[in-house]
Every structure is written in C-alpha cells, then in structure tokens.
Design a protein that fits this description.
Elements lengths: L1 E4 L12 E3 L10 E2 L9 E5 L6 E5 L4 E13 L6 E9 L10 E4 L17 E7 L4 E4 L5 E4 L11 E8 L4 E6 L2 E7 L6 E2 L7 E3 L14 E3 L16 E3 L16 E3 L11 H4 L6 E3 L1 H4 L11 E3 L11 E3 L11 E3 L14 E10 L4 E9 L2 H40 L9 H10 L1 H24 L13 H11 L2 H14 L12
Antiparallel strand pairs: 1-9, 2-25, 3-6, 4-5, 5-25, 6-24, 7-12, 7-25, 8-9, 8-24, 9-10, 10-11, 11-15, 12-13, 13-14, 16-23, 17-22, 18-21, 19-20
Helix pairs in contact: 3-5, 4-5, 6-7
Length: 501
C-alpha cells in the first residue's frame, strides 16, 4: 500500500522548491538517530544499473532512523503542495516500509538525535503495509481508505502526492494517478477529519419488550405421534454374520515372548514388572480376534429431537439502535489542521535491504514536479527496454536449441507469434518453455525405450482373483493348487478389527 508523507519541502510561495538529489554524501547534512534500537546502517550508494546516488538501506532486519532539519518550518495550509520522492525496492518489499515522515517543530517534545517512531509528524507518505495516514495536532491518525498498491517489480518508482487548496489530494505513481480523495470526506479517510454531527445516545436503553427475532417457533405446531426422540442414531446390523475363521478365544495382543525383565528392575520401587504387548501373530492371518460383535449401521427410524418449525415473528421490530443525539464534539473545518513541517525523517523497520531513497522534492507547481519525473521515466524506460531485449534473446536461444535437437518443424510457422506472445505475457512464456521441454523429453524417452512392450501375464494371488479364476476354469484341482500357492507366497494380511467387520 501507499502511505502519505514528506521528505523534502518547498516554501509554498511561487515556484521555490526544496530538493535533495543525494549527489553529495548525506553525512553532515542528515542526522542519524542515536536511539539504541536503530542499528541499521545508512549508505550513500548508486542504484543498480544507474549512475546517480541515493540513500541506501544496507542491512536486513534492522530499524533505521535519519532526519533532515529544515532551515525554517514550512506551512502546508496555503496553496498547492506537491510532495514527491523516488524509491527503488531493489530486493523487493515483503515486510516493512519505504515511506517518509514530515515532522513537526521540535518544541513538540522531540530532538533530531532522538528521532524514533514516537516523534510527532504531520504527514507520512510512501510504500508501506499500513495505507495512507496523516496525523493531526491531537495525535489522531487519519488513514486513507483503499490506498493504491505498491508496484511489485524492483525498478525505481516516483511517488507523488498533490495537496490542493480545495482539500483534494491525488496520489500518483510514475506520473499516473492512482487515487483521488478529499481530506474532509468521511468516505475517504478513517477516522474522518470532521466528526459526525450526531452520535448514538449513550443513555438510551432498549425497551424490555423490544423483539429482535425475525423468526419464532410456530406455537401451533405439534410433534407427530410417530416421532421417536429416543431412537438411537445407530443400531446393530442384524444381517451381519461373523466371518469364518474368527478367533473368539484369542486376544488381539499378547505378551512379547522375547522380552525379559531388566536386571536393574526393583519390584518394590518400580512395581510388578509386566512384559510389553505385541500384536497377536495368530490374528494376522485370521479375520479377527476376541469377542465378535455385530457392527453398527445408521438407524432408519432416527429423527432426533423434534423442533417446531419457524414462522415470521408478528412482534418483530428489527434490530434496536439507540437514538441519535447532537455530537457535543462536532466541529466544522474548511481545511485540515496540518501542523507545520520543521524536518523530514525516514524511520522504518524492514526485513529487506537494498531500499534506495532519492530525488526528494516539494514544490507548489505540478509542472515542476513533472519535470523532475522525466529523467526517472527515461532511465526506467531504457532499463525496461534492455530487460525486454535480454528476455527476447534468451527466449530465441531456447527455441533455436530445441528446434535443432528435436524435430518440431511443424511449429516453425508459429515461432514469431509465440515469441511475441510470450514476451507480452511472462506466465505464458514459462508455459511455452515447459511444454516444449515436455515434448522434447517425450521424444528422447521414445528413442531410448522404444514402443510399448508386451505385457507379461502373471497369476494373481489375492483371494478375489483366485476365486474368479476358479469359477472361469471350473476345476476344483486348479483351485486347490492356487490356494496352496497363496498360502506359500502371499504376505500376511492386516488384521481386521471388529468394527471393520
């Protein structure tokens, strides 16, 4: 998401601007927080693939805080204000922020060297997980509803916030408008800058006879005479028969005959020693052991507890709400009461390194901000073209290699279209390559292993197959031979439980 903040301020008179390009080292001009929690190291570094420098977040999983004091506090209440900066998430942004804070004067109980997350700010703006928010004098945060999302790539992007004198605020990413809102609209900010005119009466109480039930049990309904609430959900299956060979007198578990009492076993301290139990081997070859009980089945007569059917409630009055009364805290605003900005700070806790801040600007003129965006757009366009060219070259090489190795000449006519389509849709590109690799591997597989081999017919040894074979051949002698083979070769069957039978 995008949140709302300043890093460089302009004096809102004429076209004068405050601008930071980071062409020179930040040391001596920016103040790094001396708070113990903020151990992240800031660096003056180049952006990957670019020649210009920026302020770099150099380590993972650290807290960072740095501040730039302005020569004079700047008011944001008059005229148009354009807040703009560039950032590049060179290693992505999974958890954290890349936003700026526009800080209030230091008489608001904070110091530059002690800058931290508690330092009071007027506006915060930039990529984050928390949306857009501003802070008023009362330290109440106002979040922009439904903020625009952050680009998912690792290129540089310019974030712009335009504050208009009619309370309109516009959010741009790389010059393209992503969000338009009004500071004084309750539909755009939560909580709203202007309180509601009315509020629920805290002293209003719901009447005792107020009925909120839309449906009620039919008072005239009567339980049918044949409705048996005591009928169980399951009953014994009377048609079930104990499997042949069931061992009623054999326990499912027996003492391990190979176990022996440990030499250091003390009957007085450890109690009487008992051998550990193992599965009864006799039960492994039998349908089951122990007392056989008929399995349960669903009771067709089961209906459960009877309840009267529901009907519309003739006394239903709806969900009760307290009456509205005038809000004693209500007030009206012509403009949001945003405090002056005396400093610009970056205070973040991020799991990613490689976040680069650059070209921080505040101006009263939208065209001036646009002129600062153009060089960024040219650099990004060149980078995108270079990446596109590299992808196309790689894709063509993969196709050429596959065409040489495998005989797939029937795709020749479609090759240009596939390349263009794959370039425009990266996910499709992956699908194309995977599909061709599968075709290639299929051809290799056929070359190595040839066609289908004749299936060798072998005799099945399980009970069901033996029975079917015996019936087809009609020979009792063959049936006996197959049963003998089964007893000799078949693995022991898993013991069935009484519930399974």
């Amino acid at each position: 998401m995008i949140i709302f903040h300043f890093l460089f301020l302009c004096i809102i008179f004429g076209l004068q601007i405050f601008y930071e390009s980071f062409d020179d080292d930040f040391e001596g001009r920016w103040i790094v927080s001396e708070r113990e929690d903020y151990k992240g190291v800031w660096k003056h570094a180049k952006s990957d693939g670019h020649e210009d420098h920026g302020l770099l977040v150099s380590e993972k999983a650290r807290k960072y805080a740095i501040v730039k004091e302005l020569d004079e506090a700047v008011s944001l209440k008059d005229g148009t204000a354009v807040l703009q900066f560039e950032t590049r998430l060179q290693n992505g942004l999974e958890c954290g922020g890349a936003y700026l804070k526009y800080l209030r004067p230091q008489d608001a109980t904070w110091k530059s060297k002690e800058f931290d997350n508690e330092s009071p700010y007027s506006i915060m703006f930039g990529p984050d997980k928390c949306g857009i928010r501003t802070r008023r004098v009362e330290y109440i945060e106002h979040h922009l509803k439904y903020p625009p999302s952050v680009p998912s790539d690792k290129l540089s992007h310019v974030y712009t916030a335009i504050l208009k004198p009619d309370n309109e605020v516009r959010i741009l990413i790389d010059g393209e408008e992503k969000k338009k809102a009004n500071f004084l609209s309750s539909e755009d900010f939560e909580p709203p800058f202007i309180p509601a005119k009315t509020i629920p009466d805290p002293d209003d109480k719901k009447p005792e006879d107020w009925d909120e039930r839309p449906k009620i049990p039919d008072p005239d309904a009567v339980k049918p005479d044949d409705w048996d609430e005591d009928a169980p959900m399951e009953i014994e299956d009377e048609e079930a028969v104990k499997p042949e060979g069931w061992l009623d007198d054999e326990p499912e578990e027996i003492d391990d005959p190979e176990a022996s009492k440990p030499e250091d076993w003390d009957d007085e301290e450890d109690g009487e020693w008992e051998a550990p139990k193992i599965d009864n081997p006799k039960c492994e070859i039998a349908p089951g052991c122990g007392e056989w009980k008929k399995p349960l089945k669903r009771n067709p007569a089961y209906k459960g507890k009877w309840h009267a059917p529901l009907i519309d409630n003739p006394n239903y009055k709806g969900i009760w709400k307290p009456q509205q009364i005038p809000n004693p805290d209500y007030f009206e605003l012509d403009h949001p009461d945003i405090e002056p900005v005396a400093a610009i700070g970056i205070e973040i806790w991020t799991m990613q390194d490689g976040i680069l801040f650059d070209n921080i600007l505040i101006t009263s003129d939208e065209k001036t901000a646009e002129s600062y965006r153009r060089p960024h757009g040219s650099q990004n366009l060149k980078l995108r073209k270079r990446n596109r060219k590299l992808r196309m070259q790689l894709l063509k090489k993969v196709f050429d290699l596959l065409y040489k190795i495998a005989d797939i000449s029937f795709l020749n006519a479609y090759k240009p279209k596939l390349l263009v389509k794959g370039e425009k849709q990266p996910n499709l590109t992956i699908g194309i390559l995977v599909s061709i690799v599968i075709v290639f591997l299929t051809i290799i597989f056929k070359i190595i292993f040839g066609g289908k081999k004749p299936v060798k017919i072998t005799r099945q040894t399980n009970n069901s197959t033996v029975a079917e074979t015996s019936n087809d051949q009609g020979s009792s002698r063959e049936k006996e031979q197959e049963n003998e083979e089964e007893d000799t070769n078949a693995p022991p069957r898993k013991r069935s439980t009484r519930r399974e039978n």
